[in-house]
Amino acid sequence: MIGTYINVFAILIGGTIGLILKKGIPEKIGNSLMKGLGLCTLFIGIQGAFKGENTLVMIISMVVGIFIGELIDIDKRVTSGINKIEKKVAKNGQSQGTLSQGFISSSLLFCVGSMTIIGSLNAGLQGDYTMLITKSTLDFCSSLIFASTMGVGVLLSVIFVLVYQGGLTLIASVVAPILTTSVMNEMTCVGSLLIIATGLNLLGITKLKLMNYIPAMFIPLLLSIWL
User: Fold this and answer.
1) Quick check: helix, strand or coil at residue 49?
2) What confidence tier does 218 reach under pLDDT thresholds 50, 70, 90?
3) Which of 7, 97, 223, 226 has the most CB atoms lying inside 10 A of its own CB?
4) Distance, first Cα to last Cα, the chain
């Protein structure tokens, strides 16, 4: 778990610096930076989406995962909880939904990708934190930029990082035989589609309830067990 703790610490430090810088950024520039982040997020998502090897697995994962997410309505539960926090900490002039947007967008960006999966497995099986430390450096920079435009919700994403990334590290010995290169590529592909959706949300093109899409990331893993 040391690698995950380092990652969480990096996000908190980067996010805090971003919050401090936010006070000196004019709203017009902040809005432009948000759109720029949306474009960067789209690029990251498109890059990862091409790692998929089986289009059918991707389609099944999205359909089944979204069905499960909508059935449970994860987005409503998460957003409701975050909005309660937002009402307590929101300052005058801060728009509703900023906290949840920061949390969801940064959580997906920090946790989706092969570095998260492989880094967590290496940490759990071999005690090798090299990849997670590298990822922490990248997340430090990303959290700084995201927090400067989306606020304190970015800091809350460490909860998701701790649960998801830390969970993978703890159960590494169990899931390692199942997480073949092919399965990880499919998980990365599906996760990257969610990152593309995040970029579209940041650009204001869509208003997708992305938390309801999260289960789709794990369907390739379940399919590998079933097959």
Assistant:
1) helix
2) confident
3) 7
4) 31
* 3-class secondary-structure state, position 115: helix
Contacts of 101 (CB under 8 A, 6+ apart): 150, 153, 201
**Using an 8 Å Cβ cutoff, are 164 and 52 in contact?**
no
Query: What count of other Cβ atoms lies within 10 Å of the Cβ of residue 9?
Result: 13
Nearest Cα to Cα of residue 199 among 21, 44, 60: 44
Amino acid 210 reads L
CB atoms < 10 A from the CB of 177, how many?
Answer: 7
pLDDT at 93 over 50: no
More confident residue, 156 or 30: 156
Other beta carbons within 10 Å of 23: 7
pLDDT at 35 over 60: yes
| Residue for token pair 């606020």 | 151
Gap between the Cα atoms of 31 and 181, Å rounded: 39
